[in-house]
Structures
1.
Amino acid sequence: MNNKQDQNGSNKSPMLYFIILSLVATIGLNYLLSFLMSPQKKEIYYNEFIQMVEQDKVDSIEIKSDRILIYEKNGTQNGGIPEYIDGFSEQPSMYYTGYVNDPKLSELLNEHNVKYKRSLDENNIFVDFFVSWIFPILLLYLFFGLLMRSMGKKMGGSGGIMGIGQSNAKMYMENKTGVTFADVAGQSEAKESLDEIVDFLHNPAKYMAIGAKQPKGALLVGPPGTGKTLLAKAVAGEANVPFFSISGSDFVEMFVGVGASRVRDLFKQASAKAPCIIFIDEIDAIGKSRDNQYGGNDEREQTLNQLLSEMDGFDSSKGVVILAATNRPEILDKALLRPGRFDRRIIVEKPDLKGREDILKVHIKNVKVSPEIDLHEIALATSGAVGADLANMVNEAALRAVRMKRNVVIQDDLMEAVEIIIAGKEKKDRILSDKEKRIVAYHEVGHALATALQKNTDPVQKITIVPRTMGALGYTMQMPEEEKYLMSKDEILDEITVLLAGRVAEEIVFNTKTTGAANDIERANDLARAMIAQYGMSDKFGMAALEKVQSKYLDGRNVPNCSEETQTQLDNEIIKVLKEAHEKAEKLLTENIEALDRIAEFLIERETITGEQFMNILNEIRDEKNKKEDTSEES
Ligand code: ADP
Ligand code: MG
Ligand code: ZN
């Protein structure tokens, strides 16, 4: 990330507001203080004061630089003796008069027994000024600053005191992203669509000459981690133009209007740097459809409206292209998607086998590897993984190589990394009791056997009963021989049987049911439900769509699309499918109980066995059986 800089426009008006505010507050404070600090005082004439002295009404006086404070005798309880505490008397009533240079005063005072003194601790004018003016302002400034900062933090802004209303969103500008299409593996369709934008940014005149208008914006749509952000950067890198990026959620603040002003700011700064790319990540944060049922959100709507009008307003011939990314395109406001705005939609799919291999190749370039590694095998084992997973995997493999004190990454590291992504790290310190270990072993071998004994399943790659950090006590890894894009009904049914076979093995051998099967059961249920409600694979409902997927790119939950009555029937149908699969698994395992026992014992001893070892034992048992049958037939 070179040339990254925070874009912070400056804005003077908040400072002015602040100064006025604190001045008013300080004046008010001073007034209040002087009111509170001084007892009831009454100004009298100087000759009235002399009169009071002559009438022996005065107990003591205090001469200040500009006035004389007069403490009356009250002649009652404390006999008129004032108690001076830090220069103040506790006398209840008090008068004062202006200071008059009267040489005869001391004489008169002595005559009438009036105590008098000149106040010594007359405050320095500077100290006075500081205490009553500068200090409160500083205090207010500090308080204000803290308040703003904590607010700013909460809102995700980076601004301090002066940040009200200004664009302190995390907008980044990179002059050179340093990413090119070569860094984005696979995704050739997406790259093709973006190529045109790159070309346009290179040479807008070519398009203008013929009168062709470039799309103003393109929306990158796809599941998280598939490389949308990466692609946007690559477009900027290829076109060699500045890249402005901001996340949709950074627009939305607590104060209405802030988001809108940020949008204005963004477009102003970007058009000054044209040609360039504006990238709005996670645009669904502001682009949510405005007619949702939970009442409006003024701030978000204003921000969206501002974005819409900016997109309409700017002249695309200047060479500003807006890219946005989302994984929930279905909730976006229709206005965003209409022609002239984000009229291009570029789907960034999860990578297929070849795509995964290519992504692995891109990332493996950064680590030292031994020549024997086989990325094709890794790609096969990682069906469903996205680019971010694969990048992470390569890194995990490199970390493991370091842990093992090797200086290159070998295939084992990569396979282990695949498992880490699927099941979490090995958790060697979790000790299972012997009984538990046996149950887990039988459970896993149950899965593996059901896999091997059915036709429409992927071969077993590895079985292990070493606990994993993500909660699995053991697991069976299957490895497809080739990438599949379709799943048939038979394959789904076999898969459900495999999932249930773990628990079935527990039931057959130990006559017990454990919690270890929870995840299997959940997955089996989901599969059965999808099979009936979404894939139209049941005889009862035919091809009725009983459920809809809500956010396709986020593996979102399914919402019912049928009456409650039908849902009840659907549930019954699911239960039926699961029951049948249960029976099938039971039949498979009881018929092969010898294999189950032998492989489980082997697993308990070794803790991990490979698919090859597994198949060897299974074939041995088959051979023995065949021989037995042969001999019995002969006899
Ligand atoms: P998204 O924005 O779609 O959620 P990102 O673009 O942030 O995903 O991808 C995250 C990381 O995953 C990237 O930084 C990159 O390392 C890796 N990655 C994802 N897709 C690819 C790809 N097609 N080729 C190479 N690396 C990829
Ligand atoms: Mg992203
Ligand atoms: Zn299981």
2.
Amino acid sequence: MEKMTYALITFGCQMNLHDAERIRGALHARGWSECEPRYAEAVILLTCCVRESAERKLYGRLSSLKPLKEKRDTIIAVGGCLAQKEGTRLIAQAPYVDVVFGTHQYPHIADLLEQAGGGAVCSTALSGVRISGIPCSRLEEFRAWITITHGCDNFCSYCIVPYVRGSEVSRPLEDVAEEVGAHVAEGVREINLLGQNVDSYRRKEEGKSRFADLLRLLGSRYPEAWIRFTTSHPRDFDLAIVRSIAETANVCEYVHLPLQAGSDRILAAMNRGYRRAEYQVKVDELRRCVPGVSLTTDVIVGFPGESEEDFAATLEMLELCRFDGAFTFLYNPREMTAAADLPDDVDARVKQDRLRRVMEISRRLTSASLRGEVGSEQTVLVHGPSRKDPRRWSARTRNNKLVHFQRGEVNLTGVFARVEITAAGSWSLHGELKEILG
Ligand code: SAM
Ligand code: SF4
Ligand code: F3S
């Protein structure tokens, strides 16, 4: 077959960014090569549908590709979560789309693209995704993302993810370890374990969570690499996991633990499976056992029936847990989900005002958390030149705080270094290079 070219445009979360690495791997293995969309024979969009805004973004981008189709007969393929949700509806809405592929179909991407041309192809069966043994073409040389669980069984009442990613499956422990080993042998410095709920890793297959065991195993086998993980679920994040973070030297002191809401009534309506007091006990335990840990969260405001009192409970939890950062969202009803049947009854202006108030507190907490680092010396992993100011390096501390420091002659991308933290801004730290660790 002649050499084919593709361009890949990714929306959505880290899961999609990593699926994109797998799609690249699968296509490269079949002799495809990557180029800019305007020269590509196939343009692939990897989509998100977690909120309506994500859908709008996709349709905007899709219509901007129409001229390419008309001029060069470019193959247009749409995959990922929105493609899974819409299926043939997507083709009806955008008839110039050639291929729609769902979240379990990306290992077959080369076949699907090669079939295009004889009419639109729609492949969205949730037939069980293959997550082992698929080639991966990493976006970065020094950081690797590794899926440990795929899909989700939690069915939080607002969330569409279980419907579009399918039910949760975990990879075998040794299989994950082998992939980590291959990345580390290629010089990767940071491993990021990925799952919608990493804390339930292998619970379904083995009857109990093996996540703490996985952290310990990877920590002892690959001590030279930093290990991170996302996302944790407050119901399943337990003491064994806290201890494994505390006792495994190369597991980084950073946890993203989405709270979503601070009122027990709303947490129950969200089907989150924990109460605020339990959440707080876990946070206290984490802060006690893992000194310097940084804790971030997700918060949804304006869930159906959220009263001012419920909302006040969320604000109170933000202060009590002293989050180092919070991602905040306006509730947005999603079709298929249980909450979509509830009246979306919080007035739009009230929702906006609540969002503003949550963001105000979270900004203040983030600033305080950054100020707390000033004067310390930290090991950082350098990610590359800062996008805003290329005269500076952009790096992350073990507890995932962004640090900028002056660039010199030597290329430090992907290198560990010691940096003294000299000042704190609103979102990042400033530092001075003390030592290059290599
Ligand atoms: N599995 C992770 C978890 O349990 O938090 C991440 C799920 S989701 C991709 C990321 C965040 O989007 C959620 O934590 C939630 O705060 C937000 N989100 C999901 N559905 C939403 C909705 N319908 N409206 C507003 N925010 C939503
Ligand atoms: Fe969505 Fe809840 Fe699953 Fe996270 S745990 S992906 S919020 S259903
Ligand atoms: Fe991620 Fe969006 Fe899908 S947040 S899991 S790409 S719906």
